Amino acid sequence: MMQSFNCLLLNTDTLISIPIFNDSTGRFTMLDQQQKVHLDNFKVKLLRNDICRKKNVDNSNNMKLWKVNVKREDIKNKNVSTNEEIVKLIDGKEMKLGELFKEYFQDELNDQKFEMSNIHVIATTPDNSNLLTEGIYSVGNCVSHRLDESQVTIDYGMLVGEVKVGRKLGNEPVIAGSSLSPDDSVFKKDYNIKVFERKERVDNFLTLKMAETFRTKSPGTLVLISGDGDYFETLLEAINLNWKVEVWFWEWGILNSLRKKHEPSELCKHHLFPIRADKHGVYPIGTNGENKIKYKPLEPCFEFFVIGIGPILFKDKEVVE
Asked: 130-143 vs 251-258: helix axis angle to the nearest 10?
């Protein structure tokens, strides 16, 4: 006898089966690595880790699981896309990592209220900042260690402080992201801060604020600290309105494009390519003034805004234990 629960990765079409078997030893599930786990030992954390392994989710620590019992069409029709909407619109309940799977599905496991075609679990994870994701690899290269998200975090307040050294601000900085720590020093500043659960909303907000700035302010320097080229058209519009544009990003991300591990963004192709790379940095090669965007690598100054957790990251420097 077998039951199959359905887990949906929110904002995707990905469904993951959670099979429950029954034999002479009792009810159990099989994890991705063919590990047999009885329901008396099947904690939510094991399920979360199994989902992350199956779907190559890197930021597993940020993944949340929600107990629901709804039709897939209801999720789509109600436009459920955030943790808050899971609770409000489809009566979702967050599953605690230390608790057992069976504690959340007692009725369903007893064949009550169980619809095999329903969604029973929703997995959510914030679209982690490309700035942080690329930064983990870049900083790892700088210190000759392979790092993960448990060892590195970015203090965005300190990053903005490093970028604005020696400059007079013409407008308050705008900070937007899908995962900002409440301990970040940015919250001690008088900045315009927005936190969204979906990257698309981050992009939309930043595009709106940039357009608002160069449409209502006298031309100056627009500084974008970003991990991708989603703002290409917006930056070109700023240049057309006589703004100077700087893009601060990780050299490793640009070199990664050069090695063809992923397609270069439009911003890279139009303004950062072709480029010259050496041990001192990455430089656009322009002709006849074509490169109107000034690129600034973050690697030379990462120690001013990257916080290492544990003793590995920065030898002979203070770290957060």
From this structure: 90
Provide the residue count of the chain. Answer: 321
The per-residue pLDDT string of the chain (321 residues; one tens digit each, 9 = 90 and over) reads 589 999 998 877 789 999 999 999 999 999 976 889 999 999 999 999 999 888 877 556 778 999 999 999 999 899 887 788 899 999 999 999 999 999 999 999 998 889 999 999 999 876 556 787 778 778 888 888 877 666 778 899 999 999 988 888 888 899 887 667 778 898 888 888 887 766 667 888 889 999 999 889 999 999 998 865 667 778 888 888 989 888 888 876 655 544 444 455 555 555 554 445 455 545 555 444 455 677 788 988 998 998 876 554 554 444 433
Sheet with 15-23, side-by-side order of all strands:
36-38, 26-30, 15-23, 2-9, 119-124, 64-70, 93-94
Which CATH number among 2.60.120, 3.10.20, 3.40.50, 3.30.1380 corresponds to the domain 2-124? Answer: 3.10.20
Domain boundaries, the chain: 2-124, 130-308
* pTM, to two decimals: 0.58
The number of angstroms, rounded, from the C-alpha of 240 to the middle of its chain's C-alpha atoms is 31
Q: Within 13 Å and on the Cβ side, how many CA atoms surround 294? A: 8
What are the DSSP calls for 51-113, one per residue? HHHHHT-S-GGG-EEEEEEE-HHHHHHTT--SHHHHHHHH--EEPPTTSBHHHH-HHHHTTSS
